[in-house]
Every structure is written in structure tokens, then in C-alpha cells.
Amino acid sequence: MSDFWCELAWLGSDKVESGVLLSLAGERIEAVSAGIPEPPVQALRLPGLTLPGLANSHSHVFQRALRGRTHAGTGSFWTWRKQMYRVAARLDPESYHKLARATFAEMALAGFTLVGEFHYLHHQPSGAPYAQPNVMGEAVLAGAREAGVRLTLLDTCYLHGGLDPSGYRPVEGVQRRFADRDAPAWVERASALKNAPEARTAAAIHSLRAVDPHAIQEIRAWCRQRDAPLHAHVSEQPAENQQCVARHGRTPVRVLADLDVVGERFTAVHATHLDAADIQALGAAGATCCFCPTTERDLADGVGPSAALTTAGARLALGTDSHAVVDPFEEARAVELDQRLASLTRGHHTPSALLAAATRAGYACLGWPEGGQLAAGGLADFVTISLESTRLAGITPDNALASTVFAARAADVTHVVVAGKLVVRDSLHCRIDAASELGAAIPELYRE
Description:
- By secondary structure, this protein is α/β, with parallel strands linked by helices.
- The protein has 15 helices and 18 strands.
- The protein has an eight-stranded mixed β-sheet with strand order 3-2-1-4-15-16-17-18, covered by helices on one side. It has an eight-stranded parallel β-sheet with strand order 5-6-7-10-11-12-13-14. It has a two-stranded antiparallel sheet with strand order 8-9.
């Protein structure tokens, strides 16, 4: 058994506890004891504030290569997408693995212990399957394993190139490598992926623009047979809603609700442009909505109705999506601060609610309900931040929670434990030089 003594720890309430001893048995927390004034001899001392493992519930790991190359331009999501497609066309299993490994290590350094990878780079650029049909997915899985983070591979169905009032368009260009032949072909390929102690497989519908209702029913059935989560991009852009209404007569949320997709195991990613009926449907079903504020603001997507969703009964989770920034604290506070800008009022989400979105809710929506909390029987995944940086110096236990949510940065993370093992110690990754590996992997994708 291993012991970790936390100077301060958040156990899920509206305050932090002092002197918390976490006793581990393998990959689980065996006991949590608060009010221990000094660390036992056998315990590793964790000065600062310890939080449950943080979940990055929506990631496109290959888009890390776009950072700094797309952010200064003009245009919209649709012009950015053309730039994203150019990078997607260049990746092969080897370069994908290198980029994924380094990017997952960057996430670990920022405090992420679990990642939901929304994976749709399945095939060769021509659209032909690789000899090993899941070689690209295996590259992502290997990268996460080597970086020491848990992974839910959200294998994504993508069948069509767009949606018109007359029907679905065929895929073209780089979209060919995203697309399986049809839903049964997706089922066959996704079914060959296996769970592992550190990785689980679930499913995603890319969007109502890329997957038709008949195929969605097959994906839903696949998830239910495996008790697996199902995620989908939903209403990220007004044009997406307009196209869906023109074709199906309903918004994306209501199409999915009518197909019996929207429920407690469903996560709507972005959920930015919703009407009142959409919000009510997601809330009544107890669905999760994954907000990715740093990407949504970068792409000029808009501000989603997070306060209305939680009032209606929906849960919030957080993701870094395109990795414009990899910082869980920035994503958490942005949910509240963006609502303040949109509403001209303050106080929509408490610090503890924002941390719950980053921890428990993220773990649950990715199929790890036993994680994201410091509790006996839970997964031994946790993160410690220093309270001695200029950002956090001078705080007290009474305001540590609010200070962390509204002022901490990824750079304040000092220790990360996943499955009871140190992945980051004293602000250094225990296995990977993430900066050097990113510095080598990304320029290679732009070399002519």
C-alpha cells in the first residue's frame, strides 16, 4: 500500500480539508483520512492543494499541430476547418503516434489524468483502409499509454460530407480518410478495438452533418450492447442547425432525442446554439454537455447556455478540443466568465461546481464513473497544485477553492498520480520530455 499526505485536499464539498491522508491499494484509493496534522513517515508529502484527477472530455489530439498557425487569421469556423483538413491529410500512423504521445504528455503536465479522444482519422488519405484497420486508433492508444494518462477512445462514425435540404453529400478530399463505407463497416471496425486497464472504447457521432439518422440508430445499438458512452458534436455552429432543420425539420438535439439517443450516457459536445426546447430535452434526460471554451472562443463559435442547461438538469463537462490552450483551470473558469459576459451578471456556477465538471462529471461521461473523486474505492488518480506561485501566493484554506478555479494555471501543477503511479513529479513528466517531442513532431507535418 502507498500513502500520500496532502497539505490541503478537495473532497467534493464547498471547502478544502487540511491534512488529508490518501491510502492506496494498487490502482484504487483504500481510505481517505482528514485532519492528519503531519505526514506519516511512509507517506509522500504533497504540499499545496490536491484535487481529484481532471478529465479532458473532448480532444482532437492531432489538432495540437495547429497551435499558433491558425489563430491570427480572419474568417470563421469554416475557414479554420480548411486549415485543419490540410494537417489531417498529412498524418500517418508513425507521425500520429509521435504527436499524440507528446500532446498527451503535455496534458499530463497540465493535470489531466483522463482524456476522451474524439477519433476520426481512421484510414489512408485515399480513404482505403490500412492493412490493420485500426492502426491509427492504436497509435493514439499507445501514445496515451506511454504518456501515463487514461484514455477513452471515442471511435467516431463519419459517413457523409455534408447536409443539404435534398440529402447528404458524399465525402470528398481528406474527408475520405474519416469515413467508413457505411454504419455496419464502422461497427465491424470499432468492435475490433479492445478495452485495457488504462483505456476504454466508446463511440461518437461526428455530427448530424456527417451521420444520417439510420446510421445513428446502429451506433446507439452498439453502445447499448456494451454499456458504452456516446458523444456527438451538437449545434456548434448556426449553419449546422439551419442545415439540419432544412433537411429533417428539427434541430440536431431533437433529431437525436427522437432517435432515443439523448440520455444519461449521452454527451453533447459544444451545445452552443440551442433553443429552449433543446435545453429542456438535454436537461430532462440528464445528459452531459461538454463545453470547450478556449476552442469555442478561438473559432468564434459563440457562448453556450451553460447556466440554463444546469438549471434544466444537464451536467457539464470540459474539454480542450483543438488544444489552442491545454489548461483545465482556464476551461473551468471560462464557463463562468463567459456567462458573465453574455448575461451581464455574475455567479452562475460555483467554484465547486466548476471543479465537479472538470473531475467527476468528466470521468462519468467518459465511462469511468469510479474516478474523478477522492473517495474510498475510487480510482487513485489525483493532481496537486502549488500554492506558492505569484498567482496563488497569500491564499488561505478558506479561499483556496475559488483562488484555484479563478487564478491557477497549468504551470502550477506539481504532481500527477494516475492509477497510483506518479506520472508528474516536481513539475516534470516522469517519462517524456514533452516540449522536445512536440518541437520535433509538429514541424515535421509542415515540411514539404
